[in-house]
Every structure is written in structure tokens, then in C-alpha cells.
Amino acid sequence: MSLAVFPDLTGVTTTYKRTPTFSTIVQQSESGHEVRVALRSSVLYRWDLTISVLPDGTDASLARFGDLYHEILNFIIARHGKWEAFTYNDPKDSTAYTCRFVNDEQEFDTSIYGMYTLAADISFQQVFE
């Protein structure tokens, strides 16, 4: 099965944070002795992206703004939030990861106060498929 690919954000102002995640159970006895159990054998990553677009007022810039907004929004809707996995091509290491959104809700802000802006905070994490 081929997965949809997260939209390309080349040329868009994006704050990018990739965090390695692990899953460990820690059990502590009354004496203070601890037992730690790793629930998976390898790292999984989580990405937090903050996308910010401020068009320069040209027709091409405004068209790109609208296209990007609809592309990202439609991508999230088509995945039904965190239900369906997708492929994310990480620009930092040129690796394709299978991911799901962390939450069913993703925050978008579009404002028109004499100008257009788009701000989106999007979080997703790697999954084993």
C-alpha cells in the first residue's frame, strides 16, 4: 500500500523540531530499587512544525498562500486526523518516515488585516507500519 506524502514545504518559513522518543516503564520498590523495561528496541521520532506564511502582495505570492493553505488542510482532512498514516520526507536527513498526526486537531490561523497570513502548528510522530 502506498501512503500519501506530506506536502513539500520548500521555500516556506518553517520552524522545525525533531525529537527522538522512547518508551520505558520504570517500576520502583519501597526500598528505592528500580527496574526499567524498554518497550521498544529503537527510537521513534516526533516532529513539531510551525509554518508561517506572509505573502508579499503579488498575485503569485497570494496564489501560493492559498494553494499551500488548502493543500495542508486537505491533507489533514484526507488522513482523518491521526487515523491514517502518511509518508514524511525529512529535509534534514533525506529519509522517508511513516508517520501519523499526534492529535486529531491541528491548529491553523489565517488572518486578513490588510494582509494575509497563515500560521499552523502541526505535530506528527513516526510509527511502525
Query: What oligomeric arrangement do these chains adopt?
Result: single chain
| Secondary structural class | alpha+beta
Number of helical runs? Answer: 1
> Any low-confidence stretches, pLDDT <50, length ≥5?
none
CATH architecture: Beta Barrel
CATH level 1 class label: Mainly Beta
From the spread of the alpha carbons, the general shape counts as elongated
Mean pLDDT: 85
Helix content: 10-25%
Topology:
Blueprint: E1 13-21, E2 24-28, E3 34-38, E4 44-53, H1 59-78, E5 86-90, E6 95-101, E7 107-112, E8 116-126
Antiparallel strand pairs: 1-4, 2-3, 4-8, 5-6, 6-8, 7-8
Question: Could you describe the 3D structure shown?
Answer:
With 129 residues, this protein is of the alpha+beta class. The protein has a single domain (13-126), classed as Elongation Factor Tu (Ef-tu), domain 3, CATH 2.40.30. The protein has 1 helix and 8 strands; from the N terminus they run ββββαββββ. It is elongated and about 70 Å long. The mean pLDDT is 85.
Provide key terms for this protein.
alpha+beta; 45% strand; two-stranded antiparallel sheet; 1 helix
Quick take:
The protein has 129 residues and is an alpha+beta fold.
